[in-house]
Amino acid sequence: MIKAASFKGQDVAVFGLGRTGLTAAKSLAAGGARVHAWDDREEAREQARTEGVSLTDLTTSDWHDYAALVLSPGVPHKLPKPHWTAQRAEAADVPVICDIEIFARELNARAKGNRPKLIAITGTNGKSTTTALTTHVLAECDRAVQMGGNIGRGVLDLDRMHAGMVYVLELSSYQLERCPSLRADVAVFLNLSPDHLDRHGDLKGYEAAKRNIFNNQTAQDTAIIGVDNPEGRRLCTAMTARNGRSVIPISGQKTLGRGACVIKGKLYCAQERTVSEVADLTRAKALEGKHNWQNAAAAYAAVSALGISPEKIGKAILSFPGLAHRMETIGSVGRLRYVNDSKATNADAAQQALASYKNIYWIAGGVAKEGGIEPLTDLFGNITKSYLIGEAAKPFAKTLKTHKVDCKISGTLEAAILCATKDALASNKTDAIILLSPACASFDQFKNFEVRGDAFRGKAKEIIAIFEREVASNKARKNKSAANSGAAA
Predict the structure, then answer these.
(1) What is the mean pLDDT of the segment spanning 198-212?
(2) N or C end: fewer C-beta atoms under 10 angstroms in the chain?
């Protein structure tokens, strides 16, 4: 754990006692702050008591005593409606921050020669894979590295800071709007598409939150920007014109005169009028799909910015084992493959998987985002049949039927998997894919996308095990029959 001393001797309110809130409260207390933690949920408060976190009923507190409110990233402080704690904080002129801001202050307090490196990664889609891939590459290149933020461990639960450490953080727009002190040695902006607009008001507000990742960077720092969509190209041009830091464009789709790009599956580095091949990504089994090519380019550029050789980075990229819930192959029944892409919580994310496979038996649905699945119509030809679950089942069925895509309202994930398996096996199609890529949030039926993905993985493995037992049993019967025939002869 990082002992956060930046609020030593001060009173700090912490609201929202999930993963990040609990670690923030413990870190602040370990650093000498007087922590006043609270949550609207009794079960969360009980868990905090169990873990030794000091509780204060913030509904009756004098907010003028607090140096800051550490508010869980998922709790709004402005839009669509300020949480009551944010209203109390504003009335008392108390700054609203998150755990990333505490981490940033601890990092900035270190002497220059004793400051760890920070790689910060954001984007609407691909940030988890890029964060995990970057961490993997650094570890394979023998660098001390820790991964956290919006993935894995809470940032203040990571190992203590020292000069040789590299922190790789996935940062959401919710976190970036509350960490004014953040300064990343390497800041990565992958892409931007409409998401979380209720929280940020509109696309402009969402982009502004994402762009905070570049705040406070100096001429010695590096900005890496995906240029495969218009927003990224515009941002890259604007930041390059400012000439305040090193700006590296990346692409998974087109040739670049400088930066990192992927052409026909091969990752290239272009700099100083020379282009060199880094890795053949068609050999990276955990990086299927063109969207992952941009992720690989981003990871390469980020690690390269720390001075590691292209040869070492390329080798490490090819050994990446993949990430759960992101186009994760669970296993196969004959030529039928199960793929868990539960992290695809919007149409833009689901597009990546739908573009990567053919003969898809698509499981989709949940709590739909704005626009539903209309943006995916160009890929409907890859879908053999769709199985719809959750709140979005009926509107999704209407869209699919309009485009003459065979579909069934299954209701539950388990029913969808069973129906999809039965239909796929009966079709005798080669290389059929049962794909969970919901294009929806999970909250109508599951706590989060991880729980949804785990449920899919568990049921798929159960089905695979049944078929494996059946194959083994048939083989044993054939062997026994052959042995009996031999004995009779």
Answers:
(1) 92
(2) C
